[in-house]
Amino acid sequence: MTIAEQLAQELNLKQWQVDNTIALIDEGNTIPFISRYRKEATGELNDEVLRAFSERLTYLRNMQERKEDVKRIIEEQGKLTEALAAAIDACQKLTEIEDLYRPYRPKRKTRATVAKAKGLEPLAQGIYAQTPGFDPGTEAAAYLSEEKEVASIEEALQGAMDIIAEQISDNADHRKKIRDLTFRTGMVTSKAATQEDSVYRMYYDFSEPCQKLAPHRTLALDRGEKEKFLSVSVLPDTAQILTYLTKKEVAKNPTPSSPYVQQAAEDAYARLIAPSIEREIRNELTETAQEQAIKVFQVNLKNLLMQPPIHNKVVIGLDPGYRTGCKVGVVDGTGKVLDTGVIYVTHSEAQKQSAADFIKKLIAKHNVDLISIGNGTASKETELFVAELLKTMPGTKVRYIITNEAGASVYSASKLGTEEFPDFDVTQRSAVSIARRVQDPLAELVKIEPKAIGVGQYQHDMNQKRLEESLGGVVEDAVNSVGVDLNTASWPLLTHISGISSAIAKNIVAYRDEEGIFTARAQLKKVPKLGPKAFEQCAGFLRIKDGKNILDNTSVHPESYAAAEGLLQKLGYSLEDVKNRNLDDIKKKAEQAGMEALAEELGIGVPTLTDILAELVKPGRDPRDEVEQPLLRSDVMSMEDLKEGMILTGTVRNVIDFGAFVDIGVHQDGLVHISQLADRYVKHPMDVVSIGDIVTVKVLSCDVQKKRISLTMRDLEG
Fold first, then answer.
1. Domains of the chain by start residue, with CATH
2. Are 438 and 403 in contact (CB under 8 A)?
3. Mean pLDDT, to the nearest integer, of 230-257?
4. What pTM value is reported for the model?
5. Which of 96, 207, 328, 490 fits a 20 to 30 Å CA distance from 78?
6. Measured on CA atoms in the order 239, 243, 249, 251, is the torsion positive or negative?
7. What pLDDT digit, counting tens, does each position of 299-341 carry?
8. Pairing, β 370-374 against β 399-403
């Protein structure tokens, strides 16, 4: 089976879809470009499927490469048979390839290699054959040698059994069967490795079947073991495994050699196979758990990035703090910094009053609409201060919002933060970032390493390269699905656009600074290093507001402009109608004319025609505007105010394997356990909630001392 055939089978795709998609990837097209502008070729595969496709394609190609390497190495040893080559070609996993390669891999010094050096291999072969007339004790006497340091019959027999044990251990079929038995019958257990109390106390005497171990438990056990609080093991049904080995290795009709083979088989399992299989299964559990955690992180990150912007609002950003005070940054509706400062809301009453006066002046001076408060240290005190301040301003339109500040300090201290605001200190940059995050979450969050945004679990324990690649893909998909304004986008934001490298992004900004704003997408061709391929990949994702051609403010690709204009003409419209949003009946007219007939006449596919129609109706549309707007507050509650049974509205801040954390306006997020998400069985919390969702919850319990709030989304009327 070819790689293309395997992909079609695994992903349940038609062969033509697979062949076309592989060709597009190999031609250097990006996933966002293929997803958006090559729908006819792929059968309308979305970016999520395309990324999974691309990853699997890479894995299978790497596996094919490994197969060829292994066959070449064995061939060089003169040991490659047709049967072995066929077995290697049939492997579906890298572990299966390594099992077959194990007997041919150059070995370090082992008990078996030492025994072979002493000339004991023929004795081992004789014992292993288990022929009736072969007496190991008698035969071993012939191998005694002072020169080869075989001093006794016992030593000779032990050396022979070491060779047999390694041969049994190298058997690929045995390893596959024992791996399967270990996983099916094995229990993952953990014991306390210390008397010290810790967050891992629930795992101090823990046991769960390998097959049922939840991903978040796997990662918790790994971390607890790494931090030396836990001792973790995999305990299989050893008796079942030894029965299997005995059946396979020991002759049915016992001979004098059989007890020695039995002993070698038991030694092979205990000394060589079991530790290796345990490592493999622990690694497999960890990889599976990490993949699950990465998937959760990906979905959370995408939902966070796609949070609706609060357009054209003047915002005060507050970065709370105790000793160093609360940093203040004011930005206008475009994100331009208007003012900065520092206030002290946790110190003396005089300082609090001075802080209140300062904020009131900023509100009046800049006509502020919204206050964005970071949710870190001293956030609660800052929120109380803002709520009290707003009470002294009757009739004010100002509201506040608690903003996740994860990663703000990372950005503030970064090279990028320094380049963007060279005259600001770290804390001022952080306050500005917190203000801008509510205006355009996507544009601000892309400046931060995705793993620092804090919407996952155990992200620091992940394979960092894999995590970075996965999250980078999410950011790329999010930025391209929204599109960016070519005349206002920062170079870091532009680097996430399909086909644009950091060098090209900087060249675009430099060109804009020197030549003035772009008035047409075609001008991109004049940007240094932005060649035809890069233009093809990026043009459709870059928007020009108030440009020469209204199509430049849509996701219609320049390659389809002629088709778009032909469509308008065919249905009795003009580009001016698009600009004036005067196309209410265009979809109806297109359907009446027949979509397939229209597409054929225009030389495009129906999916492209459908996309063009959607863009013509709403040029410059932002998909994030269709998401529920965030909650704005004017008053504050504390944990002490919470009562069992209280019904509240909150915002989902994080979704993890065992539930969701919801901000209900009391500084401490409450947990809705997976069992409390719905009046039905929930396989995963993401089936019910997403980051940014506005949800109604009921308080189940509140532990002020431990800062734990338990919430439910069930029985809300009861």
1. 3-104 (1.10.10.650), 315-474 (3.30.420.140), 514-626 (1.10.150.310), 639-712 (2.40.50.140)
2. yes
3. 95
4. 0.82
5. 96
6. positive
7. 888 888 888 888 889 999 999 988 889 999 999 998 899 999 9
8. parallel
